[in-house]
Amino acid sequence: MRDKRLWLIIITIFTLIVLINISSKNNEDIMIFKPVITAIQPIQKAFFTGSRETAEFFKTIMQLNKIKEENKFLKNKVSSLENSAVMIKELQLENQRLKEMLNFKEQSFYYGMEGAKVVGRNPSNWFETILIDKGKQNGIDINMAVVTNKGLVGRVIETGSRWSKVLLIIDQKSSVSAMIQRTRDNGIIKGQIEPENKGYCQMVYLPIDSNVLPGDLVISSGLGGIFPKGLIIGEVERIEQQENELLKIATIKPAVDFQRLEEVFIIVKKPDNELLTEEEN
After folding, report:
1. How far apart are CA 181 and CA 189, in angstroms?
2. In sequence order, what are the residues at sequence separation of 6 or more whose Cβ sits closer than 8 angstroms to the Cβ of residue 86?
3. Start-end of CATH 2.40.10.340 domains in the chain
């Protein structure tokens, strides 16, 4: 049954081809076939219409594939441009930071400073340290002060040949001799222990008669020999006086944003006292 249908289709197609060929010749030679031609014209029309629709279908498929390829290319292009824009923005921000750092270094000519990048951070809740990409090969040693153009960061507590670990001033083990710039009252800057004040410091051992006020600037006093005098530490946020205590405690907001620390300077050479005196005057 299936073979009969196949042969019927083949014969029909062959007949259509012959009649189409004949219909394209001189009308006078084919008058005898006119009734047959007239009869098959609908079939012929349907055949050509179907052929055109099939051709259009495959053409549309090819166009869709081309559109998909172009769409993929454009998406990749957009993604590439977005990545380039992000990289350019990062370079601009880094350039701005480095300009500020360079300006700070030029203004602080009386210090010998080595620039470094922050390459690691201790995620522990008990320690506040960072890792920098300069070490013994760069002249870095333990207890050297670390700063930015904003203020004091901390001190070096461990060194390798090409790396160093820095203890931040907000760590509870940190201790910095400091003074209120306006009143000249001395105290000690300690890292906060309480979780609610994490990221802040305390200035302890302030005299009971100190006239310290919120907004006062706190700087390093130079006592103790580790941190040079005059480094900005932060600003007084509030003052407390506990009962039965003969001293005041001030909460200090550091000048440095430790969550966004990317570049630092290590003070490898401290200034002469004469230079500091001239600067203060």
Report:
1. 14
2. none
3. 108-280
Residues in Cβ contact with 156 at an 8 Å cutoff, skipping those fewer than 6 apart: 140, 141, 142, 143, 144, 146, 164, 165, 166, 167, 266
CATH topology of domain 108-280: Thrombin, subunit H (2.40.10)
Which residues are CB-neighbours of 228 under 8 A, at least 6 positions away?
A: 111, 145, 220, 222, 267, 270, 271, 276
Which stretch of DSSP H or E encloses residue 154?
strand 152-159
Q: How far apart are CA 133 and CA 115, in angstroms?
A: 9
Q: What is the dihedral of CA 193, 197, 198, 201, to 10 degrees?
A: -70
Give me the helices (H) in the chain, please. 2-23, 34-107, 273-280
* Confidence (pTM): 0.63
The pLDDT tens digits of the residues spanning 140-164 come to 999 999 999 899 999 999 999 999 9
With beta carbons less than 8 A apart as the criterion, state whether 169 and 189 touch. Answer: yes
Residue type, 135: G
DSSP state of 228: P
